[in-house]
Write a structure and sequence with these properties.
76% of the residues lie in helices and 5% in strands. The chain has 561 residues and is mainly alpha-helical. It has a five-stranded mixed β-sheet, sandwiched between helices. Strand 3, helix 17 and strand 4 form a beta-alpha-beta unit.
Length: 561
């Protein structure tokens, strides 16, 4: 017998949709089953003439089913299928109710018509007999006594006919009440009242039997009362059964939703195990979980909800074990790979530093950036020691630091060489100037008769060259400038020292005041006769020793380091 379902979409469906939204896609088997349920419900509603008696509800169910079959979103399709199923069941119930009501009306009208016809016939028969009796009385006065007797007999028959008519009417009314009770009983039976409202159903059956028995005994009032009670009891049976079925349907839908959620959770756990390569590292667990999940899906298709839930939960638990095993193996494997990668990186950085230091050993880096170069070598030794102690993290850190310092040294040298080249190229235009590179930077030397003998007054003929020097110094604002005054060995050494100090100050003052060189960029020192560059035994040598050396300190920081 077809079970009619009256319910709305269970609250658990919402839970299912939320879980599936967090966990993954809807199982195609679950979606196919839901669509089939909805299609069956629509077909059943059509067979119950819902197109005639519940057209609007049926059209709504059909539209929901079409939407469920057309949308690509599995979650939305599942929700629409449930709604279509429920709307179709409501349409079928409404159609069945309307048909029952029509049947009751038809039976009532037919019974009333029969009763009226029966009453009319008996009344007419009595009236005819009475008329005949009266006519005979008029025509046969002689037979007055007989006619009177016959009239009395006719009157008695008429009275009897009236009584029969009243009895027939009472019987018809009772039969109508019994028919109505029977119709409601049939409707209750359709809603499985025999199962879900057994006491009320059986009480209705007994009351209908009692009413029929009372009719046969001519107790119409009691029969009618029993029929009325039977009708009321049948309605109760129908209501109780309908409510019970609704709960059963809701419970069934809830169970199906619970199973779907359990399967979805198991699938999520299995996918997680798959991502952790459990099919390799925990093959037995992974296979067991896969098998259990398949069995759970089959149980759901067979509507074995309890079994499906049990299998799905087992699948979830086993899949979690598979994941834990696989994840541990994967973590260990990745840790080993990371260690091997770290070892390789540590060896590689040491190789790069060693290679770089060896390559730069024959360049100007050890000379022009000796501090940074030596620091890089010290850090390399530290990294090599850490590598020997298998402290690869420290090896990497120190090795990279060493490589960074070495690169800074190389860049420093490149910068120094670039700046010094620009200075030397620019100073090449100064006539009578000697240009050399020293450990301190670029030296630009003026010698000879820069000053009057024994004086600190500059020789004007050198002013153009001094101005050229100032234009070379100005673009090198990032570097300090050292001005050194030197003398020959003629005269007292202390006197020569003081003279060179004054001459260095005079030279610096000229560059500041006449040429615009920033004073804070320069320092002036007198060194007297302490650093000759030529012999003092002849005039030419002494002329060379009387000099002003301007040193742009491009290497000063490295010398200090």
């Amino acid at each position: 017998m077809q079970c009619h379902r009256f319910t709305t979409i269970p609250v658990l469906l919402v839970i299912l949709l939320v879980l599936i939204g967090c966990a993954g896609q809807v199982d195609p088997i679950v979606l196919e089953t839901s669509l089939q349920y909805a299609q069956n419900a629509v077909s059943n509603a059509r067979r119950m003439q819902a197109e005639t008696y519940a057209k609007e509800q049926l059209e709504k169910a059909t539209q929901l089913l079409e939407q469920a079959e057309s949308v690509e979103d599995g979650i939305q399709s599942l929700e629409l299928a449930f709604q279509a199923q429920m709307e179709a069941q409501i349409a079928g119930a409404q159609a069945r109710q309307r048909i029952a009501e029509q049947q009751i009306d038809q039976v009532r009208k037919a019974d009333l018509k029969v009763m009226i016809q029966e009453m009319e016939y008996k009344v007419k028969t009595a009236q005819t007999r009475q008329a005949i009796a009266e006519e005979r009385a008029k025509r046969a006065l002689i037979r007055a006594l007989r006619a009177e007797q016959r009239a009395e007999t006719a009157q008695a028959e008429a009275d009897e006919a009236r009584e029969d008519a009243q009895t027939a009417l009472a019987r018809a009314k009772v039969k109508l009440a019994i028919s109505e009770a029977q119709l409601f009983l049939d409707v209750a039976k359709e809603t499985e009242a025999m199962t879900y409202a057994q006491d009320d159903y059986q009480a209705t059956v007994d009351l209908i039997k009692q009413a029929n028995a009372l009719i046969n005994r001519g107790k119409f009032e009691e029969a009618k009362e029993a029929a009325v009670q039977a009708k009321a009891r049948a309605k109760v049976a129908h209501s109780v059964a309908t409510s019970a079925i609704s709960k059963v349907v809701a419970s069934k839908a809830g169970a199906q939703t619970e199973v779907t959620v359990a399967i979805a959770r198991a699938q999520v756990e299995l996918d997680r195990a798959d991502d952790a390569n459990a099919f390799v590292h925990a093959e037995e667990f992974f296979q067991q979980a896969t098998t259990k999940l398949g069995d759970a899906t089959q149980a759901l298709k067979s509507e074995q909800h309890d079994e499906a839930i049990r299998l799905a939960r087992q699948a979830e638990s086993i899949a979690r074990k598979a994941y834990n095993v696989a994840e541990s193996v994967e973590r260990q494997r990745k840790a080993e790979e990371a260690r091997e990668e770290q070892i390789a990186q540590a060896k590689d950085v040491i190789f790069k530093v060693e290679e770089g230091i060896n390559l730069e050993a024959g360049t100007q880096v050890p000379n022009l950036a000796s501090g940074l170069y030596e620091q890089a070598k010290t850090l390399l030794a530290d990294a090599q020691e850490a590598l020997g102690n298998e402290d690869y993290q420290h090896t990497l850190a120190v090795g990279r630091q060493s490589l960074e310092v070495l690169n800074r040294a190389i860049e420093k040298v490149k910068q120094i060489e670039s700046v010094e080249k620009r200075i030397i190229d620019a100073a090449g235009v100064i006539s009578s100037a000697e240009i050399t590179q020293t450990q301190m930077g670029v030296l630009i030397r003026f010698s000879g008769d820069l000053f009057k003998s024994g004086s600190t007054e500059l020789n004007p003929k050198f002013f153009p060259m001094f101005r050229q020097l100032a234009e070379i110094i100005k673009p090198t604002a990032d570097y300090s400038v050292r001005i050194e005054g030197h003398s020959d060995s003629i005269g007292d050494a202390k006197t020569n020292l003081k003279l060179t100090e004054k001459r260095a100050d005079a030279f610096m003052t000229y560059l500041v005041e006449k040429c615009g060189v920033p004073k804070e960029q320069m320092t002036a020192v007198g060194l007297g006769e302490s650093k000759p560059i030529a012999t003092n035994v002849n005039k030419a040598g002494r002329a060379k020793n009387r000099r002003i050396d301007t040193i742009i300190l491009t290497r000063e920081s490295e010398v200090d380091n």
